[in-house]
């Protein structure tokens, strides 16, 4: 499939692709010998911003300093959210060009990846303040960089603090999310504003939060004086309030906030995890309060005490307050359940109540839940066994997406749902794979993965499989090789294969070493640790290229530390790392900052979250489809077709309308020019790549796109 002649491409789109992918000569039309002037930079920045999300380091490395600077400033202005693998190499490019001093004009997320040793003392506070507006979850694979940020921030404050003041907290921003519990309890009460930005709190941090709230020293005052406005101001932190504190809150205030929170959840503005945590804690407090009162005698058989549940009952945001799981069992009739399954499951039911609903559905539908009802029970799917799912009819792609697009389905459910779909002559299309997310590939059987057609895998493009076990990474690598192996250029081949290299054998990595791909550190940390042991220091240095310095930022990552422990002192010195064996002991060494201020270890990358990236490739968080920018919402393969199908420039900057396409119809690949892959310095040194893939040669014959 290719772009037909006459296909319309917007001028802004063509301009951006031209600048970021093809033009490497200084005298291109519209550019001065020195590069972009201010007005041209503004024009560039006003180009289609959604495609900035498709940023790729290799073509960007060919840009002169002012063009790269304009690109970074445009990302900051448009608040473009990049993934960790994009940010790490972009930070190295910025450092290489001496752009790091312009940090105040750069995206906060990018500052998280900068070389902190190059931050001038005079800029320390300004740099820390801006970096602390970023998302530290992007550093999930760079534990040492995350710890170093904490040390730099504390150094800016003049050293360790027994108590973080309000001004300290303003400077530290999101970095407080890595503080230990004792530091949170001792901090100024305005620490709540910092904690609101945390993706999650550890159990000790949750305890510290409740200690702080119980003290009455926050703006909310003591729990007995809390009001609805103050609780709402807590935002997601209110979902961590303990049941013991809810028992101290005035009943009317608690009920008002419960109804408000459930309404927020039903409107889709609160995650299921947060809502269920809140409901569980609140209802536990209510149950404990009731259990402390004298018990009234009850008849056997758990009679319905609250009255039969009706459609109107289910529309009440306080439904779960009035009907606990025992009363749900007793008061919910089959007819009401069948007619009102959707509004019932829009409530954040505790796990016990979910099991009650599942049991009732089994009595209503003894032969299995009908397909028209399946999309409604997505929140329950984790409760179903493989044999129970075997009773379902799953014939629609929409049903598959409804059941699997959330994080509820587990491994067995994923495989079983997909098998039912395949049994009904379904096809795992590229669009379906994108919709359910790359993490679902981790839970497919090897046979199901093999059933994906190469053409559909190409259309799915770069899916995040970083959370997969090694066995699945190996299978997915083989499928990716089948799909992309015929790509004719090194650059295009690496672009497609990058997310799947975690399953690559040592032979593949050695071919990429010779191709000078400058692998980003995020991708490197996801390589097979056993395969990595077979690479020499020289192999790794060449494979990482300009990103080799990032080893210091990730040396405590299990994959990196395992490889480093296999090296001798001389090799460590060659990499610029200290030769103290204690330096390889793990994250604990680098995360100890002060007795009272200790950064928390890195977290697993979230599987849902911000508009930020679905399935962050390589360590970045996955995105809800409703928030996806155009460049991500479209199937990735189609984006590459657009990207590489746009007429490019030859090395003399004349328009070249020819582009290369793979022999089996793979997404078109860019023509290879005389310049190397990185900044025109590196060149392909080998004559043969992985099986089925040959690097470009001067005799390669281009194939016209249909």
UniProtKB/TrEMBL annotation:
Keywords: Cell adhesion, Glycoprotein, Membrane, Signal
Predominant subcellular localization, coarse grouping: membrane
Native organism: Felis catus
Compositionally biased residues, Polar residues: 588-599, 694-706
One Pfam family hit: Mesothelin
Sequence similarity: Belongs to the mesothelin family.
Extent of the signal sequence: 1-30
Name this protein carries in UniProt: Mesothelin like
InterPro entries recorded: Mesothelin, Stereocilin-rel
Subcellular location: Membrane
Residue span of region Disordered: 578-621, 682-706
